[in-house]
Design brief:
By secondary structure, the protein is α+β, with helices and mostly antiparallel strands. The protein has one domain (6-194). It is built from four helices and ten strands, in the order ββααββββαββββα. A four-stranded antiparallel beta sheet has the order 3-4-5-6, with helices on both faces. A four-stranded antiparallel beta sheet has the order 7-8-9-10, with helices on one face. A two-stranded antiparallel sheet has the order 1-2. The longest helix is centred in the first third of the chain and has 20 residues, at 41-60. It is globular, with a radius of gyration of 16 Å. The chain starts with 5 loop residues before the first strand and ends with a helix.
Length: 195
């Protein structure tokens, strides 16, 4: 169980969390600071699990990550991930992450209500595609120490931008060829929240 003490040290930085912000903030911070976040799936997650288990066994005992989908475009990666924390009540123990990995990595965490907002922005973006870019809308991450912002734009594809006050923005453009698979992944995560 998380407390207000240090959760883990990654990338030379101490991550601290206040009571009440607990696991969601921890998972979001850990995901955004993982070396090569989910790029080499099995070995990295295995090593991360072992490292975190040794350093913070009570924190990681009930946490389960599942990669729902991965997309690549021009050397940039977009990941959709679900997280279940069995150590907290069911309504608070589920979240999803959207991560963008460039040389800079950022992730955005969602509860069910925020995910529904992302699905809505996605639907509007698909219908609005054109030759020029138009911002469809954005979502501000809640229950975190930093105000991350996820923006969705429509144009010759669908553009996702995760902006961090500390790291700056990271961008991923989803091509038209990947849109059907992305839509399927969005709804798989929605089903995950409904279970």
């Amino acid at each position: 169980m998380l407390s207000s003490t240090t959760v883990n040290e990654m990338s030379g930085r101490m991550l601290k969390f206040r009571p009440g912000r607990h696991k969601r903030q921890a998972l979001s911070a850990l995901a955004s600071n993982m070396p090569h976040f989910l790029t080499a799936i099995h070995p990295r997650i295995f090593m991360l699990s072992i490292g975190l288990s040794m350093a913070t066994w009570p924190v990681q005992a009930g946490v389960q990550l599942e990669i729902v989908a991965k997309f690549w475009n021009a050397g940039i990666e977009l990941d959709l991930v679900t997280v279940v924390d069995r150590d907290v009540e069911a309504t608070k123990g589920k979240l999803a992450l959207v991560g963008i990995a460039t040389p800079l990595r950022s992730s955005f965490s969602f509860r069910r209500e925020e995910w529904l907002r992302l699905v809505d922005l996605w639907s509007k973006a698909v219908k609005t595609q054109s030759e020029s870019w138009k911002v469809i809308g954005s979502i501000e991450e809640i229950e975190t120490s930093e105000a991350f912002l996820l923006s969705v734009s429509a144009g010759p594809g669908i553009k996702f931008v995760i902006a961090s006050p500390r790291k700056g923005p990271v961008t991923y453009v989803l091509s038209k060829d990947d849109q059907a698979r992305f839509a399927g992944a969005l709804y798989r995560v929605l089903e995950f929240f409904s279970r």
